[in-house]
Write a structure and sequence with these properties.
There is one protein chain. The protein has 134 residues and is mostly helical. It has a single domain, classed as Arc Repressor Mutant, subunit A, CATH 1.10.10. It is 47% helix and 6% strand. The protein is built from six helices and two strands.
Length: 134
């Protein structure tokens, strides 16, 4: 039971990082899959084949390859090919946000892009702060 708890805690903690990451849907879907396949208790990498991942996640092989490369470039996964006949081993990491993320129309609702009420008040021009100004 303790092993299962440790496994869940690692996945949930990492899941929160993925949720808050500024990554598009494809990157998050693939990253979630790798995180789910990772053995958090024994720290063993995910080992699914491209065909399996494409079937489970619903990606074409080309979408899978592009998305995987993006995650590697941003530092979200470490990939190791140990043998030609074995699947690639993938370890989830904490990477960088996608620099293109904030240019998307839907990015404005991201928690890290929202300002607090106090920040909104502090940004007001003087005429909205001083009741005696004209």
């Amino acid at each position: 039971m303790e092993i299962e708890k440790k496994q869940r805690e690692g996945l949930y903690k990492y899941g929160e990082k993925v949720k808050l990451a500024k990554l598009d849907l494809k990157c998050k879907a693939l990253l979630w899959f790798y995180a789910y396949g990772y053995n958090w208790t024994e720290q063993k990498p995910s080992y699914y084949t491209q065909d399996q991942i494409c079937a489970y996640v619903g990606f074409s092989p080309s979408t899978f390859q592009k998305t995987k490369q993006k995650l590697v470039q941003l530092g979200w996964i470490k990939v190791k090919k140990v043998s030609g006949y074995l699947p690639t081993l993938v370890t989830p990491k904490t990477g960088k946000d996608d620099p293109a993320y904030d240019s998307k129309s839907w990015a404005k609702g991201h928690k890290l892009n929202l300002i607090t009420l106090q920040e909104a008040i502090d940004s007001l021009e003087p005429e909205y702060r001083d009741p005696f100004s004209p």
